[in-house]
Amino acid sequence: MNFPFYIASRYLVSKKSRNAINIISIISILGVAVGTAALVIIMSVFNGFEDLLTRLNNSFDPDIKVVPVHGKTFVPTENFRATIDGCDFIASASYTLEENALLQYGEKQLIATIKGVDEKYLETTGLDTMVVRGEPILYNEGVACAIMGAGVAYSMGVFCDYLEPLTINIPSRTKEIHGNFSDAASDILNSVTAYPSGIFAIQQEYDTKYVVLPIDEVRKLLEFETEVGAVELKLKRNANNDKSVEYLSQKLGDEFQILDRKQQHEYAYKIMQSEKWAIFMILIFILLIASFNIIASITMLIIDKRNDISILRSMGANDKAIRRIFFIEGVGVSLVGAVAGLIFGGFICWLQMTYGFVKLGGGSGSFIIDAYPVVVNMIDILWSFAAVMLIGLFAAWLPVKVVTGRIAKSSGQ
Questions:
Q1: What is the number of other CB atoms lying within 10 angstroms of the CB of residue 400?
Q2: Global pTM?
Q3: Contact 228, 76 (CB under 8 A)
Q4: 8 Å CB contact between 175 and 191
Q5: Around Cβ 274, how many Cβ atoms within 10 Å?
């Protein structure tokens, strides 16, 4: 066994001559362990919320979305459709069209976003799995239907009973106003009706904004014939997302932008990542403060072992070997604390994933989920361990560099 490592390991597990050193050593290990466990738990909770956001978005958003670079709409040519249909990694493709509109249901009015979709939309997304009332259908015996967000439906008092239609109004792009605006208002509005068939509940961003309609009805409102706003794609199970985006970018050219799930909600994901790493840096700063316990522990150990240093020097140990002993001792404290923290943090995450004992909102059931979501990511574990050990290396190196040389010289005189 390596001589410095052997001596350092004995120092690590043996009882010190002064009880204060034992207490500070235990506090040092506990400080590192608690800080490491906090890193693992906090990072895993952020991963859980990111995974939850992704799963919620998956119900409404496609795997890949193709949108025009310029303008809001485009006409899909035969070559465009052939390119989409010819991709063997695409399971289904849906052509959609969005616009803001004035909704009227009985005496109530509301401005919302209508989304026109074709018959493949429900199999391209998971919207049908998020319908909480009614049915996810676009036509009922040839009559147009609307699938509404829960927030929109609640604001307008909508029931899926097919008794009263929903009226959708959009100002005409081509009609001109003649006379007073108030008198001509009804003449310049394009209107269609649809019966509410289903209500979906995903998250507030969608529930308070969207009403899904057949794309032909939206085209009537906008006075379009074949225009679409986007093509939404569902990939096959074994398809590679990045390669699929790259292939479509090459085939469709610079006129179209290819967006994966994270790019469709780029701002939200960036905010979440920024918050995650900001919390990570705050916890690292706390660990830096806790590392002063390691510095104090190693400093007091060096002072306590002055006689041992003299004996080691008389046995032929040089200053480098003596420094290595106490450096390994300091690293050992950090290593024990880091491993203990990883185990404890992982255990807490397992308990939360299995039993969900920490509830959201006191477990009142007013949230989408009852308990804090947790996803343990091995990359985050490695980052946490590496950060803790770097701090531990610094905390071990500083007292060894400053104190050991002075003690060794004084003991050699």
A1: 23
A2: 0.70
A3: yes
A4: no
A5: 10
Query: Across the strands, what pairs with 143?
Result: 140
Alpha helices, DSSP H only, in 66-214?
78-85, 121-124, 150-156, 181-184, 204-207
Contacts for 83 with CB less than 8 Å, ≥ 6 apart? 248, 251, 252
Neighbours of 35 (CB within 10 A): 26
Cα separation of 372 and 207, whole Å? Answer: 22
Q: What is the chain's mean pLDDT, rounded?
A: 84
Tokens standing for residue 174: 């081509």
Q: Token digits for 326?
A: 């106490």
d(CA 64, CA 73): 17
- Quick: pLDDT tens for 301-359: 777 767 776 777 777 777 677 778 778 878 888 888 899 999 999 999 999 998 888 88
Beta strands, E only, 72-165: 90-105, 108-117, 131-134, 139-140, 143-149
**pLDDT tens across 91-112, in order?**
999 999 999 999 999 889 999 9
Domain boundaries, given as residue ranges, for the chain: 3-57+268-412, 64-264
| CA–CA separation, 24 and 277 (whole Å) | 30
| Cα distance between residue 332 and residue 327, in whole Å | 8
Instruction: Retrieve residue 257's tokens.
Output: 């932008």
